[in-house]
């Protein structure tokens, strides 16, 4: 039977609230922490435990605060403040505690930044009873609560096997596939690549739409067929082995052909051109 944990969700926005409600429904004791007093008042009026202060007596602390873009990186000012506040709250804590990064961050965040912030706020090296874990979310904004309650995959990474297992066990009753890593960086990388993969697919079809439009043909109709015909659409393992260029009789030839066609239409196709350049620059065997 899964152990009941006392969970502090630091940041009660879309991600934090969805995570907390999902965990509460399977029996964990959840306290929401938010710097916005109005948000706390709203939550308490609806029967949730909420505070503007981080408690020092919980088992698991989720950092679920915003990490907005600066244009070239992430703005970590809010998560730094949250992490330091958790560290202060945990001074003198002797029980086993896990700090879980739920916010989207760059790879190496936990090892290179979070660890230092927590140590400075504790005033000493992080003791063995406090572990840092990454458990990124894959929630869609319009259906965050439903996605959190029934995740299709849960990813957990950290240097402490016991802490990773503890967080994974907490999420297990929600169902879905579980993937664990022996370091937080891999879990952090998964989340960023996940979103960039989605962004690349959207950009690809935007580029194809620009080629379909002057021909008067329906780009969506083309996409719906390709989603069924192309192995890259229906085989999740197709093409995922990095470091090897594509080859064969069709892929290089047809990429050149579509790029040439775009030039005839005087339409830029920078993504397709980048696909050619990336694969041209790779050596080794073919994929």
How is this fold's topology laid out?
Layout: E1 6-10, H1 14-25, E2 29-33, H2 37-45, E3 50-51, E4 60-63, H3 77-89, E5 97-101, H4 109-122, E6 130-134, H5 144-149, E7 153-158, H6 161-171, E8 177-181, H7 184-212, H8 219-229, H9 231-234, H10 251-264, H11 270-280
Parallel strand pairs: 1-2, 1-4, 2-3, 4-5, 5-6, 7-8
Antiparallel strand pairs: 6-7
Helix pairs in contact: 3-4
Task: Write up what this structure looks like.
The chain has 287 residues and is of the alpha/beta class. Helix content is 47%, strand content 13%. The protein folds into two domains: 6-183, NAD(P)-binding Rossmann-like Domain (Rossmann fold); 193-280, NAD(P)-binding Rossmann-like Domain (Rossmann fold, 3-Layer(aba) Sandwich). The chain contains eleven helices and eight strands. It has an eight-stranded mixed beta sheet, sandwiched between helices. α3 (77-89) crosses α4 (109-122). It is elongated, with a radius of gyration of 23 Å. The model has no long low-confidence stretch (mean pLDDT 95).
């Amino acid at each position: 039977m899964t152990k009941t944990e006392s969970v502090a969700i630091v940041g009660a926005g879309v991600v934090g609230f969805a995570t907390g409600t999902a965990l509460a429904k399977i029996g964990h004791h959840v306290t929401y922490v938010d710097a916005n007093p109005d948000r706390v008042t709203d939550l308490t009026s609806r029967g949730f435990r909420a505070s503007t202060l981080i408690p020092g007596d919980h088992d698991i602390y989720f950092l679920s605060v915003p990490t907005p873009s600066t244009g070239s990186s992430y703005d970590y000012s809010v998560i730094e403040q949250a992490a330091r506040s958790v560290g202060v709250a945990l001074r003198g804590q002797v029980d086993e505690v896990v700090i879980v990064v739920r916010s989207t961050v760059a790879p190496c965040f936990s090892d290179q930044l979070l660890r230092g912030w927590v140590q400075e706020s504790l005033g000493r090296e992080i003791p063995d009873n406090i572990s840092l874990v990454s458990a990124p979310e894959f929630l869609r904004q319009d259906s965050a609560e439903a996605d959190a309650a029934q995740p299709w995959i849960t990813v957990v990474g950290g240097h402490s096997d016991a802490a990773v297992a503890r967080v994974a066990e907490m999420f297990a009753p929600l169902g879905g596939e579980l993937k664990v890593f022996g370091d937080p960086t891999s879990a952090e990388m998964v989340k960023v690549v996940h979103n960039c993969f989605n962004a690349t697919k959207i950009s690809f079809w935007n580029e194809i739409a620009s080629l379909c439009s002057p021909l008067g043909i329906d780009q969506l109709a083309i996409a719906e067929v390709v989603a069924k015909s192309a192995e890259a659409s229906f085989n999740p393992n197709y093409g995922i082995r990095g470091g090897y260029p594509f080859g064969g009789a069709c892929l290089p030839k047809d990429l050149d052909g579509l790029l040439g066609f775009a030039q005839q239409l005087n339409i830029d196709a920078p993504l397709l051109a980048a696909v050619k350049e990336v694969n041209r620059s790779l050596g080794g065997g073919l994929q």
